[in-house]
Amino acid sequence: MSEELIDADIRVARTLPSKFYFEQGAFDSLKSVFSGWQFAAHKSEFNANTILPLNHIEMITGEPIFITKDAQCISNICTHRGMRLVPKACTKKILQCEYHGRTFDVSGRMRNMPEFEQAIEFPSEEDNLHQFATSTWSGMHFSSQTDVEKLPWDKLEARLQFLDIESFVHDSSRDRDHQISANWMLYVDNYLEGFHIPFVHPELNQALDYSGYETEVFEQGVLQIGKAMQGDVKFDLPAEHPDFGQNIAAYYLWLFPNMMFNFYPWGMSLNIVIPVSPTETRVLYRGYVGDKELAKKGAGSILDTVETQDQQIIEQVQKSMRSQAYDRGRYSPTREQGVHHFHRMISRLF
Ligand code: FES
Ligand SMILES: [Fe+2]
């Protein structure tokens, strides 16, 4: 399929054909894109433990990986006969396999193995645990199972660096786990436009100045900027910030294919989108608080309501995708640049 499936000119382009949202073949052929960069953990998640199994990455890609406090992402599979090594978060300094007792240090190097004295050329490099690529920005750790280009933080720094994300603290009372009867791309499509806010989110519409909503696209993602109503909670931007002087309520950052970082004056919420089947998606929410008082006010405080409204809409749209009468729509040139950009990215993969 050529890139021209989605025309570069948004004014004439048509949306992804509906079969992309329910066919097993389309779903399967997109699986490999998830083994690139994935959010692994935020620094504050290591307050109680030094080793965390990355269960969400295993749900997304099938690969068992753990991360250490010094941000190494390491295979969670014993190199002897494949037993799971670290079943749950812990503070261990030596990892011992529960099957036949092989031990590793926390950087994945094999230390000891009983009954292998007569084994020849043992141990070798292959007996150490596999290391995956890791990248850290502002206290957020990412892991990749493939060689991919680096994450685009340099392009985002001017806007986001003032936030001091590193100092945020994970607040598990804000975490959620949603099961949605819809394709993962419908969830992403919906996230990438504020067009529906006045129609679907009356409460959020009170908190955001819809007329000032902005969308910027870049190679690996989309940044949306929500403006606050006069007198509402907004970011306290430094003078050198590109948006200085504007009332910004939220920065909504999506990184391809499935990570959404929502920055509010109170901190950050994160949506990790997990494709389960062509018509089922799981979305993990995590909250990281920078300012507890502000967390009660502004566009970030009605997250649960907004999420339910979004899910109800996309579950209805999922059912419509099988209609014989509907296949493709058109984009609003002023309000759906993000969706258009995402569909272009998807179309390049076929
Ligand atoms: S599988 Fe781990 S020691 Fe055998
Ligand atoms: Fe929404």
Features:
alpha+beta; 6-stranded antiparallel beta sheet; 8 helices; binds fe (ii) ion; 350 residues; Naphthalene 1,2-dioxygenase Alpha Subunit, Chain A, domain 1; binds FE2/S2 (inorganic) cluster; Rieske Iron-sulfur Protein; 8-stranded antiparallel beta sheet; 19% helix
Describe the structure.
With 350 residues, this protein is α+β, with helices and mostly antiparallel strands. It folds into two domains: 1-33 and 153-350, Naphthalene 1,2-dioxygenase Alpha Subunit, Chain A, domain 1; 37-147, Rieske Iron-sulfur Protein, CATH 2.102.10. Helices cover 19% and strands 26% of the residues. It is built from eight helices and 17 strands. Strands 10, 11, 12, 13, 14, 15, 16 and 17 form an eight-stranded antiparallel β-sheet that branches. A six-stranded antiparallel β-sheet has the order 1-9-8-4-3-2. Strands 5-6-7 form a three-stranded antiparallel β-sheet, with no helix packed on it. β16 and β17 form a beta hairpin. The longest helix is centred in the last third of the chain and has 18 residues, at 303-320. The chain binds FE2/S2 (inorganic) cluster (FES) and fe (ii) ion. FE2/S2 (inorganic) cluster (FES) binds at residues 78, 80-83, 97, 99-102. Fe (ii) ion binds next to α7.
